[in-house]
Amino acid sequence: MTGSTPTERTNPEEPDKAIVVAVQRSSHSETEVQDAMDEMEQLALTAGVQVLDRLRYRLRRSSAAILIGTGQAEELAARVAACGAQVVLFDEDLSPVQGRNLESSLGVRVVDRTQVILDIFAQHAQTSEGRLQIELAQLEYARPRLRMLWSAFERQKGGIGLRGPGEQQLELDRRRIERRIDALRDQLERVQKRRAELRRGRTRHGWAQICLVGYTNAGKSTLLNALTSARIQTDDKLFATLDPTTRRVQLAPHREALLTDTVGFIRKLPHRLVDAFKSTLEEVAEADLLLHVINAAHPQVDAQIEAVHATLHDLDAFHKPRIAVLNKTDQPAGRMRSGELSTRLGRAVAVSAHTGEGLDALRNEILDVLKDRREQVSLRIPLREGRLLALLHQEGHIQSIRYTETHALVQGLLPAWQLSRIDPFRDTDPDTFFEPAKDPTEPSSPL
């Protein structure tokens, strides 16, 4: 094989034409590889790439130089030339060396799975926070690949007055990237503190915080719209939602909670994305309840459930109270699988976010999980607020109560969804009201 120059698009407005490549190791079944190729093609389409062909290569062992075998690389190069592809998308994470060698062998750009996902995130991020997180992840990805990027620059732009940058320029660029990464981390740390303060505010007001988690394109945003009457845009695309959205959800009369939609998970989710989105994903780690939205109609539903569980472990959130929401049961495959999944997953509710079927049962299940969620309160309630005092006795647990001429001084446990109602009566200095009464026979302390 001889090295060649990666081809460029003649018209920047046209979509890239690509070949998708997957590898099949001995531990992979035919079904698993087929599903992986389907998902990679869907990622490519979401990124705006036109897929010309899909190829798979069986591997006994990976090549440190080019991942696949030499003969397989020659076959792939011939296929690239025959169909006029401009880029090859690998459903694998490639090392910088593998990426550089494959580009040299194939004569076109080579993009790995992480790079495709990063590109999709970059396209879909709408908020300044989302853009900061994506830029950080992209720079972390690019840092060890600087030499490969400059090698491509030399091949495409080399000539008099346009020679390669050399080691000095590489070192300068490396330092610039390091400085920018440090700056982004500082900005995201401030965002993280701001989010933490918002969560503390919600907690102070007694809001139960519920997070939607699940595999990408499982229907989380559709479910958020159905439960809250929100109008979040929903698309049949991977990673349609990146920036978290929080809405108030009515669970029952006088019982509300906050529901947050989060970025979808995916198998082999790049760790640098998890790290970059730490401030966003902390919504999951700090939630009172997780709703794991599952596409019950998907043929690889078990693999998707496993991928979500693995990500929750990475976020140290697997122990959180969780309800499995078996979505898309309006489809025959979803109805057929929902019974077996409910038995296996324990606390589960079958729903259709599209038709609204099962949503009342889901609200009841959420209430059942949150029924014991109470908060310690100290209150100074005017005696004229008789209804509120009756509510405390009915739904709360009164630990102590004292009366003055105008107020009832109360300490106790109250259901979280009632806290917003008693917020104006919180006692800001409870020790003043609840210190033990002094024994009149006890001698006074010396001055």
Relevant terms:
6-stranded mixed β-sheet, 13 strands, Rossmann fold, single chain, 447 residues, elongated, alpha/beta, 3 domains, 16 helices, 4-stranded parallel β-sheet, 19% strand, disordered C terminus, 45% helix
Question: What would your notes on this structure say?
Answer:
Helix 1 packs parallel to helix 4 (113-124), helix 4 packs antiparallel against helix 5 and helix 7 (166-204) packs parallel to helix 10 (278-285). Residues 152-166 and 430-447 have low confidence and may be disordered. The protein is elongated and about 90 Å long. The chain is an alpha/beta fold and 447 residues long. The chain has helices spanning 30-46, 70-83, 96-106, 113-124, 128-142, 146-157, 166-204, 220-228, 271-276, 278-285, 301-314, 332-345, 359-370, 386-395, 419-422, 430-434; strands at residues 17-24, 50-58, 87-90, 109-111, 208-214, 245-252, 255-261, 289-295, 322-327, 348-350, 374-382, 397-403, 407-415.
Quick take:
By secondary structure, the chain is an alpha/beta fold.
Q: What's the helical proportion of residues?
A: 40-55%
Under CATH at level 1, the class of the largest domain stands as: Alpha Beta
What portion of the residues fall into strands of 2 or more residues? 15-25%
**What overall form do the CA principal axes indicate?**
elongated
Main sheet record = 6 strands, mixed
Number of helices: 16
Average pLDDT rating: 81
**Could you tell me the number of beta strands?**
13
**CA radius of gyration:** 28 Å
